Amino acid sequence: MSNVLRARRRLDLLQVVLFFVAVLLVVVADAGVTSQYRRKLEATVEMPLDADVFRVPPGYNAPQQVHITLGDQEGTAMIVSWVTANELGSSTVMYSEASPDPEKMELRAEGTHTRYDYFNYTSGFIHHCTLTNLKHSTKYYYAMGFGHTVRSFCFTTPPMPGPDVPFKFGLIGDLGQTFDSNTTLSHYEANGGDAVLYVGDLSYADNHPLHDNTRWDTWARFVERSAAHQPWVWTAGNHELDLAPELGEHVPFKPFAHRYPTPFWYSVRVASAHVVVLASYSAYGKYTAQWEWLRAELARVDRAATPWLIVLVHSPWYSSNGYHYMEGETMRVQFERWIVAAKADLVVAGHVHAYERSHRVSNVAYDIINARCTPVRTRDAPVYVTVGDGGNIEGIADNFTQPQPSYSAFREASFGHATLEIRNRTHAYYAWHRNQDGAKVVADGVWLTNRYWMPTDDDIN
């Protein structure tokens, strides 16, 4: 064999080796990460009823379980909610820009009240009062409980919606009221968000005998330390159903609907974000009220004014965990095509008690006969995150499917919370924080670019 032929064969062999190395590098670079981190071994335990986070505020008929949520789509109204346990008392809220002293607050709003029975439980008097004509980016002091024990709080209204208005959201789901839940909330508070996008499953009262509704009271007292000072945007989950025919309770969502005065599907505009809230456990089939609403709502989104389109659901559309596997599939089939066409940036879900982030993928091409049923990468699609890892009594979901599917970028069976810090119309920083780290440690983070203004390949950790 000639030296020329030997050299040519060596060159051919080298080219083959280099080709396979290149393929391997591409595969490795594109592979998702299944974190090998393992959370603490101790069981998830509910905090005792005498824990300080559940304490009833002192004073006769003192307002408790205070929380606020946005009262209109523009951020110029705030709904204040609270409970009085002894008697009805006053539904008045006094508020002011100038003074934290309730006696010097010059603005006044009158609210309404409700209460409900659930099996052997009767709620306290639940008050809801809407403060209107608020200024953007303004700190307000407010107080309630007049005639008995007055309590006062404060909040800052969101900035006026606009394309380059920065804002920081907390993303929390499936919180419950365990020691892990307390860590999650403490870490979120340390990270300093401006509002919470809450993706469902609040108190887990239905996990207790007879759907013990006192657990709705303890949970609301627990989260008051945050929810009384910044708006929480509520999504209804399966643990809000409280449907118990065996107890004579045939009306779904009764405790939730009395306590949290938001529609089951709705939208708000906050800073540079248009947030769409969907109801995984209300009808969403073709021509239903939710279907009709979402079709109209997506047509109203103005990406020039509010560039970031965020969708909240409870049951995830993309999840590689064996727990609750594909429970969100029918809603995905119904709505994913619309969400991709609208170039949504982020879809946030709970339900699965673990953390997962997807690549930007779409599965809308399949038409039942073309076999194109594998999710594919596309710049038009949102990133899907599951943050049902708040810390509830049911524990962690540690049953990820193997191998990790190609649409999954990062997943971990731990408790924690996420944040989304919008910087301007083109960039936002998304981060997930596990409870076992320091509060500000980022276990998974990625810079997201906006699908309308800058649709680049951005979903690599």
Automatic annotation (TrEMBL):
Give the EC class as a word. Answer: hydrolase
Per UniProt, residues of the Calcineurin-like phosphoesterase domain are: 167-355
Q: Which Gene3D superfamilies match?
A: 3.60.21.10, Purple acid phosphatase-like, N-terminal
The Gene Ontology terms for molecular function here are: acid phosphatase activity; metal ion binding
Q: Among its keywords, does the record have Zinc?
A: yes
* Domain of life the protein comes from: Eukaryota
Q: Does the keyword Glycoprotein apply?
A: yes
Q: Where is the Purple acid phosphatase C-terminal domain?
A: 381-441
| Catalytic reaction equation(s) | a phosphate monoester + H2O = an alcohol + phosphate
Q: CDD domains, alphabetically? A: MPP_PAPs
Q: What is its EC number?
A: 3.1.3.2
Q: Which residues form the Purple acid phosphatase N-terminal domain?
A: 63-156
Family membership: Belongs to the metallophosphoesterase superfamily. Purple acid phosphatase family.
User: What is the protein name given in its UniProt record?
Assistant: Purple acid phosphatase
Species per Swiss-Prot/TrEMBL record: Zea mays
Designated gene of the protein? LOC100283281
